[in-house]
Design a protein that fits this description.
With about 625 residues, the protein is of the alpha+beta class. The protein folds into three domains: about 220 residues, Histidine kinase-like ATPase, C-terminal domain (Heat Shock Protein 90, 2-Layer Sandwich); about 130 residues, 2-Layer Sandwich (Ribosomal Protein S5, domain 2); about 120 residues, Four Helix Bundle (Hemerythrin (Met), subunit A), CATH 1.20.120. The protein has 20 helices and 22 strands. A nine-stranded mixed beta sheet has the order 1-6-5-4-7-3-2-8-9, covered by helices on one side. Strands 10-11-14-12-13 form a five-stranded mixed beta sheet, sandwiched between helices. The protein has a five-stranded mixed beta sheet with strand order 15-17-16-19-18. Helix 1 packs parallel to helix 4 and helix 16 packs across helix 19.
Length: about 625
């Protein structure tokens, strides 16, 4: 980007993405245009914070005007609204790069959401993708930006009507702020109310009242200003002085969302290290919660100076928590890269993580219904900590909630589970899968259900991993109902449970041996089942093998070159099995029966027959024989 030193304006075309974005924002979806002011004030506050940070290394940048400020200047007669700050400012080159292009990876996602949700009042999307400045064109027919970067002896003007081009012109220093940026909005006819005090003051107090920079309102360009926001950092105020509305407003400003926080955690830590924490657990699930590239949302400040939002303050399994930490002990002149390795940050990480988990436990103990909502939204993420964070595993197990075969759709804790253990029950039983309804009707669960043994139903992918970590709770290991022998002989059937019909043990044993030979290397074993009560067959993993659901997951991801052979369990009391065991119709027919039983077990497990053609041929032979 270059500009003519003589002051000749240069006209440039917006990037294609910017032009498309501007058209969509102006003409598509926003019923609440007030958000533009929040975005411009947020940009101004960020510029002031950036200057404060750079001023640490170079105090000369602050000159004789060290106090940050934002001014809102109204001109109702001319239909103008001006937002001015004394922050870091921009050069002409900065203007071309910052205001003419969008260099954020989220831009396309933002526009895709606009196109998908066209016609809906979805203003919460603004602010999530770094496109806040362009919201000004929702209310302005023309936008002018005058700016002078701190320490520079040149100023420039950027202007556009948002229809496809913009111009950048060098200007006299007298026509620009001494330092910082002035954004002048020439308002549309139906947006003239944004040059009126009542409207502007209402929006600022509702959406920007807690920015860390004082905001002054001028009703006319030459009028005396009135402070409408004191710039006091909300997180440094006593909790008694902050209302729930204040917290909610601040949450919406720092997160760019329009829901309300599900839980607010605000405290000051004192001791070896001092720091203030203001974090929020969102009331709704972010759409990018499981994005593998998604980073945390905790901003790090040092004595109110914003440092970075890339420091890993919380572990990844708490990435849904949003807010900030303000340290009094981290050195301001430490590079952002070195901060991550600082022992001070390590202490903050440990303290904040412990506090978030303890606050969640308090909520779980005091308000089970509210905690259930948190778990519905973020439980699948919290469970990642069960295999990532050995130190806090017990705390996370106490927070974990599960659906089970006895919960009737409600959430159960491990404390609840252990309290209902049956006599002689030595393990916590679970079933993993991808669908709760299918899990609840799995044939492998039948023997447990018949004995009143509770089985945890685990439908999240993460469950396939943490359950394999050798975890136990109160001395009881977690054991999959689809792996190894069930070993239920010491636990009697519940009163009223159906008992299996008496079987001819010799005949059944003979059929099992025949089936094992007939199936060959399709299975590792064929054996009588303790876990089946109503179904004829099921598949389980060998005792020393991998759980079948984890095996399927790894195989689908191409990370399992060869799967282990399953065990086919057969219910010796099932009427079909007893008839098959007693048949003397020849080995060919019994071989067909054995393969059909294996395919039946695969289908019950949500799989398809290994050889669809062979399955169809066997079924055809059996049906023709049945009808004569």
């Amino acid at each position: 980007m270059t500009t003519d030193t003589a002051g000749t304006p240069e006209t440039h075309a917006f990037e294609a993405d910017v032009s498309k974005l501007l058209h969509m924002m102006v003409h598509s979806v926003y019923s609440d245009r007030d958000v533009f002011l929040r975005e411009l004030i947020s940009n101004a506050a960020d510029a002031c914070e950036k200057l404060r940070y750079e001023g640490i290394a170079d105090p000369a940048l602050l000159g004789d005007d060290p106090q940050p400020r934002i001014s809102l200047i109204l001109d109702a007669e001319a239909g103008r609204l001006t937002i001015e700050d004394n922050g870091i400012g921009m050069t002409a080159a900065d203007m071309g790069e910052t205001l003419g292009t969008i260099a954020r990876s989220g831009t396309k996602a933002f526009m895709d959401r606009l196109a998908t949700d066209a016609g809906k009042a979805d203003s919460q999307l603004i602010g999530q993708f770094g496109v806040g400045f362009y919201s000004a064109f929702m209310v302005a027919r023309e936008v002018e930006v005058f700016s002078r970067r701190a320490g520079s002896d040149a100023a420039a003007r950027w202007s556009s009507d948002g229809l496809g081009t913009y111009t950048i012109t060098p200007v006299e220093l007298a026509d620009a702020p001494v330092r910082g940026t002035r954004v002048v909005l020439h308002l549309l006819d139906d947006a003239k109310s944004y040059a009126e005090r009542y409207t502007v003051e209402r929006i600022v107090k509702a959406q920007s009242g807690h920015v860390p920079v004082p905001i002054t309102l001028f009703e006319k360009p030459e009028a005396e200003g009135a402070a409408i926001a004191d710039g006091a950092a909300l997180w440094l105020k006593p909790k008694a002085e902050i209302s729930e509305e204040d917290y909610a407003d601040f949450y919406r400003r720092v997160t760019g969302q329009y829901d309300s926080p599900g839980r607010t955690i605000h405290y000051r830590a004192e001791g070896r290290y001092e720091y203030s924490v203001l974090t929020f657990i969102p009331g709704t699930k972010p759409f990018d919660l499981f994005d593998p590239d998604r980073k945390g949302h905790i901003k790090l400040y040092v004595r109110r100076v914003f440092i970075t939002d890339e420091a890993q303050v919380l572990p990844r399994y708490l990435r849904f928590v949003k807010g900030l930490v303000d340290s009094a002990d981290l050195p301001l002149n430490m590079s952002r890269e070195m901060i991550q390795d600082s022992p001070v940050l390590a202490a903050i990480q440990k303290g904040v993580t412990g506090r978030v988990l303890s606050e969640l436990q308090k909520l779980a103990d005091s308000d089970g219904e509210a905690y259930a909502e948190v778990w519905e939204n973020f439980g699948a993420v919290l469970k990642e900590g069960l295999y990532e964070d050995f130190e806090r595993r017990e705390a996370l197990l106490a927070l974990a909630r599960f659906k089970s075969t006895t919960s009737n759709g409600s959430w159960r804790s491990l404390k609840d589970y252990v309290a209902d253990l049956k006599d002689n029950q030595t393990a916590i039983y679970y079933a993993t899968g991808s669908d709760l309804d299918r899990l609840a009707t799995s044939p492998q669960i039948e023997g447990f259900r018949a004995r009143g043994i509770e089985v945890l139903l685990l439908p999240d992918q993460v469950d396939n991993f943490w359950t394999t970590m050798g975890i136990d709770h109160e001395g009881k290991p977690f054991k999959s109902v689809t792996q190894g022998a069930a070993d239920l002989s010491l636990i009697p059937l519940a009163e009223g449970a159906d008992k299996a019909a008496a079987a001819d043990a010799g005949a059944v044993d003979g059929f099992l041996a025949f089936a094992k030979t007939a199936l060959g290397n399709a299975v590792s074993d064929v054996r009588a089942s303790e876990r089946l009560t109503t179904s004829a067959v099921c598949l389980v993993a060998p005792e020393s093998g991998m759980d079948r659901q984890l095996e399927k997951l790894l195989a689908s991801a191409g990370q399992l070159p060869q799967a282990a052979l399953p065990v086919l369990e057969i219910n010796p009391g099932h009427a079909l099995i007893q008839k098959l065991a007693a048949t003397d119709d020849g080995d060919a027919l019994k071989t067909d029966f054995a393969h059909l039983l294996l395919d039946q077990a695969r289908i019950a497990d949500g799989e398809q027959p290994r050889d669809a053609q062979a399955f169809a041929e066997r079924l055809d032979r059996l049906m023709r024989r049945a009808v004569g």
